[in-house]
Amino acid sequence: MALGYVRVARPDDVVDIARIQLTTWQVAYRRLIPRTVLDQLNVEWLSEQWHGAVTAPPTPEHRVLMAIEQAERESVAEPAPAYRVGFAASGPADATTLAPDENHNALSDRVVAITELLVEPRWGRRGHGSRLLAASVDHWRTDGYETAVTWVFRDDVATVKFLTSTGWAPDGAARALDVDDLLVPQIRMRTEISAE
């Protein structure tokens, strides 16, 4: 039986974070994002984008967490192989969290935002997304956040279903991303995370 766990991302995770993002987008979003856009993305460029997020986040409350699946050891002498299978990135809500024309005071300073929560499709349905979300919530509560929000593609049924099953709900805000002249609708989801 494999062991799954979550830890804070390290600099040597950056290439795998980029690989997971690219692979997941190519598989899960191929019907939502134009192929021309997906074909322009590559691991090297994405790695550069993630390097700063992991090595020099803008605040201590900006975090990237890494989901790991560790296989069983085949022998006492051999270490068990570990695979980087997913990641979550979050930080304090900012202007990118707002809906178009939404007042800048619409979200309080005790709101945190998930910017990415991805598990590579071949590692799906093994609890990695739930572990990433639970670890994120633990950090957010320690930081004093009360509410979490995230934007999801409206037609990304799997992500909407997953978040809904963990207590998230659409909060009524919507926007459309202009992706290569195609408007891709998104909805904002929200959950309360205050410690009980």
Automatic annotation (TrEMBL):
GO terms for molecular function: acyltransferase activity, transferring groups other than amino-acyl groups. InterPro entries: Acyl_CoA_acyltransferase, GNAT_dom. Transmembrane segments: none annotated. SUPFAM superfamilies: Acyl-CoA N-acyltransferases (Nat). Residues 27-194 form the N-acetyltransferase domain. It comes from the Bacteria. This is N-acetyltransferase. It comes from Virgisporangium aliadipatigenens. The lineage of its organism: Bacteria, Bacillati, Actinomycetota, Actinomycetes, Micromonosporales.
